[in-house]
Structures are given as structure tokens and as C-alpha cells.
Amino acid sequence: MKTIRTLAALMGAAAVLTACGGSGSDAGKTLGLTNPEIHFVHALPGGPNVDFLINGSALQTNIAYKQVTNFANINTGNTNVSYASTGTTTAVASGNFPDVAKGHEYTVLALPALTGGDIGLIDDPFDKGLLSSSARVRAFNATVNAQNLDIYIVAPNTDINTVSPTMAGVAFKNAVPASGQDSNYLNGGTYVAIVTAAGSKTAIFQSASFSLGNNADWLITSVPIAGTLSQLAPGQIHLLVAQGGNTSQPAVELTNQLTGQ
């Protein structure tokens, strides 16, 4: 659990944030003062609309593929999460956060499985610096039956042979940085996303250029093309960008420039 800063530090930071137009909500999360928040990402290609359940009760309903729900406040402590076909409470897949804590953001993902569906869980402690305007970025592998992936978030025309992956060795059902660790921080700017099999420098996915804004909160999720199980060739993998916030919106699907898909 994150360390709570002193009241004097909070007051000083609040004054600076006000002067700079910063986010008081982000400061509250960093200081561990705000209620824990949770949202749901439907990353199951070809899957039906689902309801997102907390401790067996529907929190958000009728969620379609690629939809990212708004953050909702939840209670602290042991919390069960699941998703079910819309209008039912019979879980397709379920999981558990044993110690939901104030100031943390939680993400639940509907994932593909070899048969049926699976679930992914991320606990984000949100340890962003009080005065930071950097973007927060994390990767998640939802490509069942794939090898581990390296994901590069780099400036356009970067030769990836000369740089290390931004998020390396992202395994199925796992995030990098891992659940329980803070996100990576990048400066706002223009980037491309490149994906390779872990340890390889041969791209299987490369996006068009995109803008990453200051203070953005991105979860970049690899997903299989609907109907495929092997995802390690061009055209068999997509990237979904789930943008954190309090407005329900679909994930942005990045197009693979290697195939035009």
C-alpha cells in the first residue's frame, strides 16, 4: 500500500496544482485519499455483450467488444469481480482483488480463451508524482496461445534495433508493468507502437503515428483477430488503447501498417 504523505505536503502540493491548473483528483489518488476506482474493458473479439459484476451484482451493463466503461467508485477490502452475458449473473469468468485500497485504480478485462472467455486483472497503485504531467502507459497481453510480446512506444522512424522495448516480455493474462506496480511514464508527443515476439526485432505489428497527450492514462492491449488462435504473424494481432477517465468510450483500435488491417 502506498505511503501517505504529510498534511503539509498535501497543502503545499494543492497550492501548486491550483496555480498550475493541475488535477486535484490525481493528487488525491497519489496521496491515497480518494475512493478506489474500477473500470471494465471488453477485449474478447467476437464475444457477446456482457454485464460487469462486483461481488455478484451488476455494476455496468450491456458492454460491447472494445467498450471501456467509466471509472466507478468501489469499497475497500476483498472484492470479487466477474462478467456475464448481458441480463444474467452466471459468470463467464471471475477473479478477485483481495485488498482493494484507497487511491488505486483497478481494471478488469474480458479476455479470449481457447474455449469460452477468461479474465484479466490489474491493480494500479497510481503513484504519479504530484507535479508530473507525464502520460501513464501500461501494456496487457490478451492474445491467447501467443508467445510473450515486446511492445515499443517510440518516435516515428525509430530503428528498434537500437532501443530496448518500452514494455518487454508481456505474457498472456499479464500486464507490464505488472499488476501492483505503477505504470510507465512517457512524455507527451507523437509515437508509433511496434510489437514483436519477445527477444525478436522483427515487427509483427506497427501502428500509424498517434498523439500521446500529457496526463493521458493508457492501457495498450494486444488482442487476436476474431477467429484466430495463433497471433504471431502480421495480420493476426491488433492493439486496443483503453484510455482511462470518467467517460465511457470505446477503445481506440490501432491499424497495423504492415498489413493495412
Automatic annotation (TrEMBL):
Name this protein carries in UniProt: DUF4397 domain-containing protein
Pfam families documented for this protein: DUF4397
Superkingdom per UniProt: Bacteria
Signal sequence residues: 1-21
Residue ranges of every copy of the DUF4397 domain listed in the record: 37-152
Gene source species: Paraburkholderia bannensis
Record key words, sorted: Signal
Record's keyword annotation contains Flavoprotein: no
